[in-house]
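cache lookup: miss for this entity combination. No prior model stored, computing from scratch. Input as submitted by user K.M.:
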Amino acid sequence: MQSLLILNGPNLNLLGTRQTEVYGDTTLAAIETMCLTKAKACGCNVTCLQSNHEGELVEAIHAARDVHDGIVLNAGAYTHTSVALMDAISSVSIPCVELHLSNIHAREEFRHKSFIAPVAVGQICGFGPKGYDLAIDAMLSYLGQST
Ligand code: DQA
């Protein structure tokens, strides 16, 4: 059975109340429940983690070695700044799908740059919470398990 890590970065714990005009009103807990339901339907295993700390995200990526087959990563603002997260993804050779609720390319220019994109299999952005569902499908398809 394939195992996926759904990793969320800074401020995503505030989904539901945070800038609802940009991110909508779905909470992270609801998104994680949706991911677990999706996993059951797809016959895969999903583990959800969130941290506001860059080092903890790096350590979660390291800990995914020999445990998870793929990582779905919404690195939040660290997407645009973190060489450490980029290096962590490169270092573990676990495929990663980059995910954003909002369309980062239609927003401020500083959000157009992603340090994750060059080391990701692909990027999903702009579809709100549905993006997590799409990212799980994309990762399972990449791993060779059709849904
Ligand atoms: C985000 C987009 C980032 O630019 C922002 O810093 C976030 C959320 C998204 O999911 O749309 O925290 O990753």
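stored under new cache key. Residues 28-42 form the longest helix (15 residues).
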